[in-house]
Structures are given as C-alpha cells and as structure tokens.
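Collaboration report, partner site 2.

Our partner group contributed sequences for two proteins of shared interest, and the home lab folded both. The records are reproduced in the order in which they were received, starting with the first partner submission.
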Amino acid sequence: MAAPPVSFAGVTWRDYHGVALPYSAADGPRSTAGDLASGFARTPSGALLAAVHVAVRANAQWGPKVFEPTITKQVIGPDTSTLLAATRQLYDKRRGKLHDGAALGRAYVVLEGFRWQGYSPDTASLDLVSAGPGDSDMTVRAVTRIQLQWQDNDWRVIAPPGGTWGGAAASIASADGYVRFPNGGSRS
C-alpha cells in the first residue's frame, strides 16, 4: 500500500510541557480542554495527529489528571487496563514528594518523524520517531509503533502489546527513511 499523503500546510507546533506537538484547524485536535486532546479528522493527517497527541498524553510524566482520562477515554484494546495500571505504577514510583496528581516536570523529547505501516478510514498504523537526551550528552532515538482505530467519531489508540510503550518501541540510530516533521518537530 502506498503511504497516504499528509500535508503539513496549516500545521502549527505548540509547546506541551516541553514537547512540541502539531495542531491543525482542519485535522485536529479540535478540543484541548483539561490538558487533553480530542476531535481528530477521519483523514490520514487526523490519524497521525491523534497518534501523536494520545500517545504523548498517555504517559506518567503528566500525572493522573492527564494520563488517566487519556487512557480510559482514548485508548482501546485488550491491554488498556494493563497500560493504565503500569502508568499509575510508574507515576507513583517517580513522583517522590510531589503532591498526588502533579506533573513530574517538563519532558525533553523531540518528535522527529513517522512512517506509515498502513492506513484506511477505519484503521491506521504508523511508526513514530522520537529523540531525547541519553548518557554522555548523546541523543537517543526510538521508534514506537502506534495503531489506531476509528471509533465513536474519533481516532482511538490501541493499547500497545503487553500494556507498555516500551513493548512497542525499539532503539534506532537515525530518522533516515522516515517522513520528517517540518522543522524537526520543533515549534515554528
């Protein structure tokens, strides 16, 4: 299957606690109330934006006020409850003296690009490349497989196998061969 076209015309990048995320008036998210993101178009661009926003927000980093409703409302599949439990456990382990519910701080990650694995108006699968700081001032890159399904008039992310994002991710040396986000996924 040929990769579906995705246009970045009209896409703006905004800071989300240290991560630059893409926003489109045409493809979503249409709502960002309560630090959540929903309302994505049933298009390749809408699926891509949903994958980015939901996967980023389904993370312990932002605290249970963000990851719990994201996972319970926007993640589907047999491993959803495992993902929620693992995310809660990771948050509790990392929060230290923070008040319950507080974000763990800013993130230091850049979304660099993606590659389609498949797309239809009902399902989508893509690999998302992210980069962040590693040991000895090295940049570490990972590719994460994100699968989506159109359900209840919005894209839903299918929980990763085993209920952890680590199970859907692999280390890579570079983003060569992936469609690069404009400006390297940084705010414009």
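Second partner submission, folded after the first:
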Amino acid sequence: MISDTLARDLRDAGLRWDPAPGDQFRIEAEALSEEVFILSHMVIEPRTYDTGTVLNFNGTTEWALDNVAADEALWLPREDQLRDLLGGTFEALTRGAQGYEVTTRDPDGERHTFTSAVVEDAYAHALLQLVRQATH
C-alpha cells in the first residue's frame, strides 16, 4: 500500500481523485487516521452534489458515521491505478537490489527510474514527478 506521505504529496501536487468502488482511503481525523476504508456500493459509496463529493457510509454502526466530505479523505491509490495514471510514460517495472524500480520515459525520450522497497511507492514517486511537471 502507498505511504500516507506520498499519497498526501500526490494530492498536494494536484492529483485529482474521482472516488470509485474499490478505492482505498483514510479519513484525515486523528481518531480514524489509522483505519483504511474501501469504497463499495454496499457500504461506502461516493455521492456527488453541486457542492462536492461526499463519501456516504451506509448502515455502519461501529463508526457512527453518516458521511465524510471527499476533501477530508486521503486517497491511497492502488498499484494498478498508479500505473494507469502514468499512462504512456510508463516503460517498465523491475525488481532490483534496492527494491522495485519503475522506469518512465518523457516525451523527449529521457528515461527516469524510481526505486522503493514498496512497489506502490515506486510508482507514486514516478507519478509525483509527472504531476509536478504537468503543473509547472
């Protein structure tokens, strides 16, 4: 699972989250910050209104939550989501001596390699560079 730090860095760099079933997230409130929630049509579903998206908790008695604004949640993208977001810049995933290595290629042909012990973090570092480049 992606680290909270990298998930925040991606969000702060401008990565947009459109909540969908199967997405994992944390609620950025101290009492719930260690819990990972998963969107599901039956339990937690996103509802979009003119005022924004809320994550609606259906029938949860243990948390006593009705809903949470998506802005108060920290999306924890999965490996497949991170790879998809890299799009055509993604070149390869390999396992090296230092961990997982994600290699990307810029439109100008320049290669970049991002390494981490956690595969999602390697993808996240690559995506973070891409998002930052797109916003500058």
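Feedback sent to the partner group on the second submission included the following. Helices lie at 4-13, 79-86, 119-135. The beta strands are 24-27, 37-38, 44-49, 52-57, 67-69, 73-75, 90-96, 99-105, 111-116.
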